[in-house]
Amino acid sequence: MVYDVDTDRIERQLRVLRDCVAVLEETKRRRGEQEGDPVLFFAASRALHLASECIIDVGTAMIDGFIMRDPGGYLDIVDILEDERVIPKEGADRIRDLVRFRDRLVRRYDELSPGELEKYWEQAEVLLSFEGWVRDYLRQNLF
C-alpha cells in the first residue's frame, strides 16, 4: 500500500518538540537557583503546551497519512498511536497524562502553580522517546 504521509510537516513538528524539550531541561536546571521566577514558569508552561500540540499534530499527520481510524479527540489520537504500535503502552500512558494537562495549560492557565509543573518537568525524556518512536515507525513503514 502506498501512503501519503506528510513527512516534512512531521519533521518540522519534531524539531519544535526538541526545542520544547531543550526549554524544559533549561528551566528545570534553573528552577533551584531562581525559585519563583515568572519567566521560568511561563517558559516551562509554554514549552509543555507546545510539546502537547506537537504530539497532537504529529499524531494527526501519522493517522491521516497511514489511513488509521479517525480519532474522536486528542486523547483518542494517543490511543490510536498506541493501538497501531507507533508508541508503546508505557509511553502512551505518560503522553496521555501530558495531553490531559494541556487543557489546564490552555484553558485554566490562571489557576496553574509552579508546583504543578514539577511533575511535567520530568516529561522531557518521554518527549524525546516519542520522537524516536515516530521516526522508527516511519522508517519501518515508508523506507
Cα end-to-end separation: 13 Å
Shape verdict: elongated
Structural class: mainly alpha
Helix content: over 70%
CATH classification class: Mainly Alpha
Please tell me how large the radius of gyration is. 16 Å
Mean pLDDT: 92
InterPro entries: HepT-like (IPR008201), HepT-like_sf (IPR037038), Type_VII_TA_RNase (IPR052379)
Keywords: Hydrolase, Nuclease, Toxin-antitoxin system
GO molecular function: hydrolase activity; RNA nuclease activity
Pfam families: HepT-like
Structure description:
The protein has helices at 7-31, 38-65, 74-83, 89-107, 114-121, 124-142. It is built from 6 helices and no strands. It has a single domain (7-142), classed as Up-down Bundle (Four Helix Bundle (Hemerythrin (Met), subunit A)). It is 76% helix and 0% strand. It starts with 6 loop residues before the first helix and ends with a helix. The longest helix has 28 residues, at 38-65. The chain is an all-alpha fold and 143 residues long.
Fold blueprint:
Layout: H1 7-31, H2 38-65, H3 74-83, H4 89-107, H5 114-121, H6 124-142
Helix pairs in contact: 1-2, 1-6, 2-3, 2-4, 2-5, 3-4
Keywords: Hydrolase, Nuclease, Toxin-antitoxin system
GO molecular function: hydrolase activity; RNA nuclease activity
Pfam families: HepT-like (PF01934)
Task: Produce a short descriptive summary.
By secondary structure, the protein is an all-alpha fold.
What labels describe this entry?
143 residues, mainly alpha, Four Helix Bundle (Hemerythrin (Met), subunit A), 6 helices, RNA nuclease activity, hydrolase, HepT-like_sf, HepT-like, nuclease
